[in-house]
Amino acid sequence: MSNHQTLFRTVTDELLERVLLVSVALGGSDIDPAGIAEMIRLVESASGEVVSQVTQKRNRPDGGFFVGKGKAEEIALEAEGLDLTTIVINCNLSPGQVNRLEELTKCKVIDRTELILAIFAVQARTPQAKLRIELAQLGYMLPRLSGMWHHLDRLGAGIGTRGPGETQLEVDRRRARARMSSIEKKLEALDAGAKVRHRRRAGMFSVTLAGYTNSGKSTLLNKLCDAGVHSEDRLFATLDTTSRRLELPDGGSVIISDTVGFIDKLPKSLLSSFRSTLDVVGEADLILLVADAADHDRLTKISTVVETLEKIDAGSINRITVWNKCDLIESSGAGEMSISALTGEGIDKLIDLLQMKRREALDWCTVKMDICNGELEYWIRSNSIVDSFIRDNNSGAVEIVCGLYLGLNHLRKKLDRSCSKWSVLPGVADTGISKGM
Ligand SMILES: Nc1nc2c(ncn2[C@@H]2O[C@H](COP(=O)(O)OP(=O)(O)OP(=O)(O)O)[C@@H](O)[C@H]2O)c(=O)[nH]1
Ligand SMILES: [Mg+2]
């Protein structure tokens, strides 16, 4: 284990096998069964199992134990009776509350953010994802370090002296910050390569699959593009962005990208360290919001996805909701894009929709030219979707109706270099610009 890692309790180092789940409903609200179900799924995604549950309704968190001392004692008894050593709680606790609960219950206490960070750590496969999750864990732990060394101060320090805990805290803070800036530099270098690849795609229509975790985004990418991306019935199966080209029936194509899924209260440190992974969402021409049609909580989850899109400045991008997993439900609403990424139902309809959106985004025009050699024809076909190509065999003149990827100016420059007479009529004929025709 490297030095920086010894600073932090990493949940992944420990067995998260049998867990006592504590669910607290704050502000007079009722215990939400969907929220509990999601916490159980999160524990399972961290390879654990919830074997017992305790719930509590309270107006506001208790400063000391979050749940209040009496409840904390009840939790301790429950854990002891079942021989459990791990408690997961559905809220986010302060380091002091975690420490006090751990002391009282003699268990390891993991809050919601720490649990999500742990799942990301388990799921990270690529060097980038591993660095990003480490950065997120450091960002999460940095303000909490003081609580972690507090016990050392109780051992030796007197009033007015610097305790061993405080000295250790400074050392750790320095080490954590140094490690964070080293990771940021490494990620910058790795992300620079991705930006170059991205620039090469200029003019391509990019579609990003966004949605709640486990809604079926990776399965859909695989179905559309035969991408071979890992998909699994586990939260946060995907932590990297994968982009593939989808060839459309009219000869055009789009780039489809699959990326990290969202969840309610996605930890801030994760959002910021995965920001460049999520850039693909902000740069999309179209977002397919993939929703699980069979999920009872689907509308709340869609709201969470929309809120998260706004947080990453992707709220204003054109988006279409795609209701996935339609094979699991009786019938879907009329007029909605309803598909099954698993069985393929509705996929042709989705491809038609993508083709329509792609065509809408092109610069359509009618091009006339006195002559069109093979090189020019190849250029036009590579830079546009050609709907009709008519050549007058006597004069050699050509008339083409095409939708350009990179705009009319691009074509005009090419025509100027390649033929002596040409005209380009965008949309309405009388706005055309021409030379000699
Ligand atoms: N029945 C059914 N299951 C599906 C469908 N699409 C995906 N699944 C299943 O749903 C689970 C999650 O699928 P993924 O494609 O990994 O979901 P994801 O949105 O990429 O999830 P994250 O990467 O965690 O955000 C897998 O077990 C899939 O087999 C579908 O149309 N029908
Ligand atoms: Mg996925």
CATH architecture of the largest domain: 3-Layer(aba) Sandwich
Question: Domains counted in the coordinates: how many?
Answer: 4
Main CATH class of the largest domain: Alpha Beta
Helix content: 40-55%
Write down the secondary-structure element order.
Answer: HEHEHEHEHHHHEHEEHHEHEEHEHEEHEE
Note poorly predicted spans.
1-9, 151-162, 428-432
What does this molecule look like?
By secondary structure, this protein is an alpha/beta fold. The protein has four domains: 120 residues, GTPase HflX, N-terminal domain (Rossmann fold, 3-Layer(aba) Sandwich), CATH 3.40.50; 59 residues, no CATH class; 157 residues, P-loop containing nucleotide triphosphate hydrolases (Rossmann fold), CATH 3.40.50.300; 74 residues, 2-Layer Sandwich (Alpha-Beta Plaits). It has 15 helices and 15 strands. The strands form three sheets. Strands 6-7-5-8-9-10 form a six-stranded mixed beta sheet, sandwiched between helices. Strand 8, helix 12 and strand 9 form a beta-alpha-beta unit. Helix 5 packs antiparallel against helix 6. The radius of gyration is 28 Å and the shape is elongated. The chain starts with a helix and ends with a strand. The N terminus is likely disordered.
